[in-house]
């Protein structure tokens, strides 16, 4: 082309295979010109397509397979572009009769259920690429996704949890320190962590002190002289404790009172000093304890001139064991007996003898030996 340009500065470089000036040529022996006429002006021509060739069978590969179609082509030669003109624009080949309808792939397996129990959903899918539609073919008809219920008959396990705490129970003691409790339940099972029962100290303030005296026992002769004068003695108990209920009072001090009675009857019996002895037996109130039936009355302490007799009962636990301090009330009762006057005493010239007797007292108190003639 440059040879026909009739440009004195332009030549063809055979080695570089392009138009160059003589200065840009690689070798002067490889550069030549062909100037036989003066240069022509306004020779620029844009390229244009020629007519389509007839349709012919052909093979077409669209990346998913090769199929037989009808094809035709055209060339950019009517005219070709020259002297810097534009090349042809548009397709050089047309393909026809290659349309293909789309087809579904098989359904996939059902996916994992959306819940592990009770009603949920599971999904399966398919794709319209078996084959894919192309060149104007129909797309697949139908749904590409299906879902269905699952686990609708599988019940979820109930949650296991503690119920709310119940109110605190009544304190076991109104004062002096007791215990009360509260409870809770393990709902829907029995594996709740922690305890179902809770205990707490209550009513820690001290109980008021309570004092009570038992009745005096009847007077009992303990020392009779040869002349007929005698000493008599009676007993009572002074009990004290810090208790919420005064009826629970069981323990205390034993008080002994002695008096002297002359034999002529002109002077009343005189009371001597009191003797007190502290009994330190601990007392515990036991649930389920109770009194036995009363024993038979004992023999009267005197044959005349008014004596007394006693009867006893026993405090026992639910297991049948003796627990003297666990029951309310007295374990012994006293009763007067033989109130008739005595006959005249036998006047002997010898001194009377001393005999040891014992006063019957409650089983949880000490026994005091008493002498009488």
UniProtKB/TrEMBL annotation:
Pfam family, one: TSP_1
InterPro entries found in the cross-reference section: Compl_asym_regulator, Sema5A/B-like_TSP-1, TSP1_rpt, TSP1_rpt_sf
UniProt xrefs under Gene3D superfamilies: ligand-binding face of the semaphorins, domain 2 (3.30.1680.10), Thrombospondin type-1 (TSP1) repeat (2.20.100.10)
SMART domains: TSP1
Membrane topology, record value: Single-pass membrane protein
Positions of the Sema5A/B-like TSP-1 type domain: 208-272
Subcellular location: Membrane; Secreted
GO biological process: cell differentiation; nervous system development
UniProt key word Secreted: yes
Cellular component aspect of the GO annotation: membrane
Keywords, ordered alphabetically: Differentiation, Disulfide bond, Glycoprotein, Membrane, Neurogenesis, Repeat, Secreted, Signal, Transmembrane, Transmembrane helix
Official protein name in the record: Semaphorin 5B
Organism listed in the record: Sinocyclocheilus grahami (Dianchi golden-line fish)
Taxon lineage: Eukaryota, Metazoa, Chordata, Craniata, Vertebrata
């Amino acid at each position: 082309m440059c040879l026909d340009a009739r440009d004195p500065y332009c030549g063809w470089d055979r080695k570089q295979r392009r138009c160059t000036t003589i200065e840009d040529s690689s070798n002067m022996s490889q550069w030549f010109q062909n100037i036989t006429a003066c240069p022509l002006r306004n020779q620029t021509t844009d390229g244009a397509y020629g007519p389509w060739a007839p349709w012919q069978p052909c093979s077409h590969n669209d990346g998913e397979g090769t199929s037989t179609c009808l094809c035709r082509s055209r060339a950019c030669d009517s005219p070709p572009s020259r002297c810097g003109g534009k090349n042809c624009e548009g397709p050089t080949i047309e393909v026809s009769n290659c349309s293909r309808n789309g087809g579904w792939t098989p359904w996939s397996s059902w996916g994992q259920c959306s819940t592990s129990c009770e009603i949920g959903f599971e999904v399966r899918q398919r794709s319209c690429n078996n084959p894919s539609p192309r060149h104007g073919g129909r797309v697949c008809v139908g749904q590409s996704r299906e879902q269905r219920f699952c686990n609708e008959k599988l019940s979820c396990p109930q949650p296991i949890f503690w119920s709310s705490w119940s109110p605190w129970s009544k304190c076991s003691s109104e004062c002096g320190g007791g215990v009360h409790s509260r409870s809770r339940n393990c709902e829907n099972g029995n594996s709740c962590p922690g305890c179902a029962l809770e205990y707490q100290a209550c009513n820690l303030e001290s109980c008021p002190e309570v004092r009570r005296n038992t009745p005096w026992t009847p007077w009992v002769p303990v020392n009779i002289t040869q002349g007929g004068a005698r000493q008599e003695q009676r007993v009572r108990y002074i009990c004290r404790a810090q208790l919420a209920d005064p009826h629970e009072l069981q323990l205390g001090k034993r008080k002994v009172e002695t008096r002297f009675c002359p034999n002529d009857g002109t002077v009343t019996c005189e009371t001597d000093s009191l003797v007190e002895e502290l009994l330190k037996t601990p007392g515990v109130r036991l649930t389920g304890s109770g009194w036995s039936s009363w024993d038979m009355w004992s023999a009267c302490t005197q044959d005349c001139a008014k004596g007394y007799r006693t009867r006893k009962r026993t405090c026992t636990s639910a297991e049948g064991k003796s627990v003297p301090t666990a029951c309310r009330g007295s374990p012994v009762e006293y009763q007067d007996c033989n109130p008739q006057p005595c006959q005249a005493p036998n006047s002997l010239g010898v001194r009377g003898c001393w005999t040891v007797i014992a006063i019957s007292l409650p089983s949880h108190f000490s026994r005091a030996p008493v002498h009488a003639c």
